[in-house]
Amino acid sequence: MRTAADATKAEGPTGARGGSPLADAHAAAALVAAAGTASVVVDCESGPVRLGLAGALGAHLGATTLRMEELAADSLAATVRTARQAA
Question: For the segment 53-80, what is each residue's pLDDT rounded down to a tens digit?
Answer without folding.
Answer: 899 999 999 998 988 888 777 877 888 8
